[in-house]
Structure formats: C-alpha cells, structure tokens
Design goal:
There is one protein chain. Helices cover 6% and strands 38% of the residues. It has six helices and 32 strands. The chain has a six-stranded antiparallel sheet with strand order 3-28-27-26-25-32, with no helix packed on it. Strands 4-31-30-29 form a four-stranded antiparallel sheet, with no helix packed on it. It has a four-stranded antiparallel sheet with strand order 5-6-7-8, with no helix packed on it. Strand 19 and strand 20 form a beta hairpin. The radius of gyration is 23 Å and the shape is globular.
Length: 487
C-alpha cells in the first residue's frame, strides 16, 4: 500500500462516499422530456428524462454542508481502496465520581467474553448475551409496536437542537435563545464528566474487566488512560500512527493501527504486536469469538488470529477472510457467526467453525457503519440514513424485518438497558447528535449533542456509557439508576 496513503487515511474513512457506478450516471446532463411534462410522451424508452430532477444515485451522498474531513480524504484518494468512531466540563460537581458506579461491579460482569491469562487464550465461548441468549429480555422486536412504530415521541423534534454558540461559550442570548443550552435532553440519564486531552477524533473507548482505568484511542496517535476515581488522565501512550479502533476483552486491550494490532495484557503486564501478513491499511474494528481475534481492514480483508493456550502472549495468524469489495469497518460476533459491515454497503455472515461466508446481506444502499447483536436479531446502521433490524426468515437467511429512517447518516450503535430493564438503542448521526431509542418501538427517549459527530459509543457496568467525538472529547454518562449492557 502507498505509504503516503496510509499516513493520510483517517480513522473515519469508513464514512466516506463511494464513486457513483457508471450505470447510475445515465441521466446526468440530460434534458427533461417536454412531452412527458405535458403528459403526452409515448416513447418507451425515451431518450430524454421523465423526471424533473436527476435520477437519484444508488449511493446516498451527503450535502456539502454535512461534509467533513472524511469526505475530503475520500476525494483525495479515490483510487485507493474505494473506502469511504465544548465548553470545558470537568468531572461532575454533582457529587459523583466515575468510580462510584464502577468499583463494585467491575470484575467482569459487563463482559462475559474474555481473554484469560490463566488459559492464555481468547475465551472459548462466544458471549452468551449475543443473539438470543438474553434471558431477561422480554420484549419481542417484531411485535406490533415495531411493525408500526408509535408516533408518541417523548422528546419533541421541533426544539431539539443545541446552540452552537453556547457549545463554544459565545452565546449572548441566554434564556432568549431559541436553541438548547445543554449537552443532552432526557431526564433518565446524566453526564458525569467530559474528559479532554485528545487533539483529534476519538476512535475507541474501552473499560477492561477488573480495572478502574478507562482507555481511549484517537486518530492523534495516542491512547489515554483515565482514572475512574478522579477523571484525570494518568498516562499517555504515543503510538506510531493513527488509531482506528480500541477494544477490551477481559484483561486485554487491543489497539488497531495501520497494518498492525498492539495488544496489552493488564494482568501480566505484557505487550506485543500482531502484524498483518501484507499491507492492508487501517484496522477499523476488531472482535473476539471462539478463541479467535478478528480485525477488519481498509483493503476489505478480515484477518483472523488464534490464541494459544500454552502461551498467554502468543497469537498465531490463522487466515484472512475475503469477500468485501471495500473497507471492513464494523465487526460483531453472535452465536456461531461473525458479522462484518463494509463501505461497499453489504453485511457478510461468516461461520465461525468453517470461517466461510454463509450469507451476504444487501439491504443498505451506502456504507454499513455499525453492527450489534440483540437476542436473535442483528441491528445495523448506515450512511443511507437508516437503522435496520434483521431476523432469520423461513429460508434460514437473515432478512430485514424493520427499517427506521432518519434525516442524517448513521455512524455508530450501542445498546443498554434503562433502570426499568427496557432495552435502549443508542445511535449517533452525522448531524452531531446521538438518539436514544426505546426498543422495540423506536420511540425517541432522549438526545445527546456534540460539537462534532460522535464516532464511538461504548457501554460499561452499572449504567455507565461513554461517547467519543470528532473534537477528541470523551464524555462519561450514567443512567439515573443501574442498567445493564446489551452486547
């Protein structure tokens, strides 16, 4: 891969737009048929357009006012891989430290899928909370409320815009301002802290099991370690290149960089590098399942490492999964499947036993940016401005059972339960907001506002969740009462 391209690629290339296929340029620069306008044209086919506007492109494109550095990077490097996660607010003075909500619940309760230094491998079992193993989940996502989602919105759309000047500390209108002077709306969750330090977009946030330290990675090339008791940054780890993803599994931290994964075991204090066998570009996302570590890359490959039971710091490259035409930007493991989402607009399902692609899902028309598993359902979001719910059909293949549409492209998903054990889906959009939906109705329960789009959301124990945005800020949130995480 071109070294210059590798250094210029951003962690959010996954949200870039792709070139319009030639077949969709059919109507460009053509005239509207005057006979069609008068309702008299009988030609079929007619060489002029039978529409008052250009035919829509299959690939959704953001208006110029929504463009960001991602799109600029894609414009510069179209020939590469066709690829397209403030007012200073310190630790909340409302009395709580992050540790108040973490200390009693840290030991592994928020993630049953772990790498163990005792066995020296990635956990042999897929998280039982994934795809159909949530025993306390009582709501069926294909109930009548999903097929006809209720229009009773608890947060009014007409007033839900945060004041940009207030975010920068310059709004002089005070109570007379027509926009909100707040970082969020909704009375069932609150902000605990806004952690400042990164100078570029946050690409991953992780709270490892048995740790009181929060880890955040950024495209500024650093991993910051935050003390959960004080909210202070206790360590800055400078790496050689932009960070595309950060995940934790048990005592392990994995950091995705171009062509390499950095792995740290917090219990044995060991660290090492997993190099890809060939230049593949940025590693955008990672997942763990059945004793394997998966990494989605910029050139469309998914590399697979197997953990060693004899050596806690040894991982062996097993294979690479091919099939996607563009960058793989999101991965999730559910039961005996790995699901991968790509800039090419498809989702692929891989059998974890054979490591073969068993199904390709084509429901989205633009980059698939995030995936989560919930009960027997797969939930995906895309820049095509939709969130889709997939379920097994009679033919044994996943099919779309519900589509939720919004006005802006969707960036990332996360799930948790509120204090009443109701499932809540968090979805960030490229209008710099995060919507909190109650499932299965998709009723809007709240919104989070940011100066730039939120590119990563992570759930922690005891009702904690974290958001990282394009400015480099990491925000710590807490439900009003304890909640539980959806994988």
């Amino acid at each position: 891969m071109d070294a210059k391209m590798a250094t210029k690629s951003t962690i959010h290339d996954r949200l870039g737009r792709q070139p319009v296929p030639a077949k969709h340029n059919y109507y460009i620069n053509r005239s509207v048929c005057k006979y069609w306008l008068a309702g008299k044209c009988s030609r079929n086919p007619c060489k002029f357009m039978h529409t008052e506007v250009r035919a829509p492109n299959k690939v959704y494109r953001r208006p110029d006012y929504q463009s960001n550095a991602v799109l600029e990077e894609v414009k510069k490097h179209k020939k590469s891989f066709s690829c397209g996660p403030n007012n200073s607010l310190a630790l909340s003075h409302q009395t709580r430290s992050i540790s108040d909500h973490v200390n009693k619940n840290l030991p592994g309760k928020h993630n049953s899928l772990a790498l163990s230094h005792q066995t020296g491998s990635v956990s042999d079992h897929v998280n039982k909370d994934l795809l159909g193993k949530q025993n306390n989940m009582k709501t069926n996502i294909v109930s009548t409320t999903v097929s006809g989602a209720s229009e009773d919105i608890s947060v009014k759309e007409t007033t839900e815009k945060a004041c940009v000047q207030w975010m920068s500390g310059t709004c002089a209108k005070g109570d007379g301002c027509q926009f909100l002077h707040t970082w969020f709306c909704g009375d069932w969750f609150s902000m605990l802290a806004k952690l400042q330090g990164h100078t570029q977009a946050v690409s991953g946030v992780a709270l490892p099991a048995n740790s009181d330290k929060l880890y955040s990675g950024s495209s500024d090339g650093t991993v910051r370690v935050w003390d959960c008791h004080t909210g202070q940054c206790t360590r800055v780890i400078t790496l050689a290149d932009k960070i595309g993803s950060v995940i934790s599994e048990g005592p392990w931290i994995f950091v995705g960089l171009p062509n390499v994964i950095k792995a740290w075991n917090l219990e044995t204090m060991t660290d090492f590098s997993l190099d890809t066998p060939k230049p593949c570009g940025q590693i955008y996302d990672m997942a763990v399942g059945q004793n394997m570590l998966f990494a989605g890359t910029q050139d469309g490959s998914i590399f697979v490492w197997e953990g060693s039971a004899e050596n806690s710091k040894s991982f062996q490259l097993a294979t690479s999964l091919k099939g996607h035409a563009s960058a793989v930007v999101c991965l999730i493991v559910g039961e005996n499947r790995l699901y991968s989402g790509s800039i090419d607009g498809t989702i692929r399902a891989w059998d974890l036993t054979t490591l073969q692609c068993v199904h390709t899902l084509n429901g989205h028309t633009d980059a698939v940016t995030s995936l989560i598993c919930w009960e027997e359902y797969l939930i995906s979001c895309s820049l095509d401005r939709t969130v889709k719910v997939w379920a097994l059909g009679v033919d044994g293949n996943l099919q779309v059972v519900y589509t939720h549409s919004e006005k802006h492209g969707a960036v990332t998903l996360c799930g948790l339960y509120d204090s009443e054990a109701k499932p809540i889906l968090l979805c960030s959009y490229n209008d710099n907001t995060v919507h909190l939906y109650e499932l299965p109705s998709f009723n809007l329960r709240g919104k989070i506002f940011s100066k730039q789009e939120v590119r990563t959301i992570a759930a922690g124990p005891s009702g904690l969740f974290f958001t990282g945005d394009g400015t480099g800020a990491v925000s710590v949130w807490n439900l009003t009462e304890q909640g539980k995480k959806i994988s």
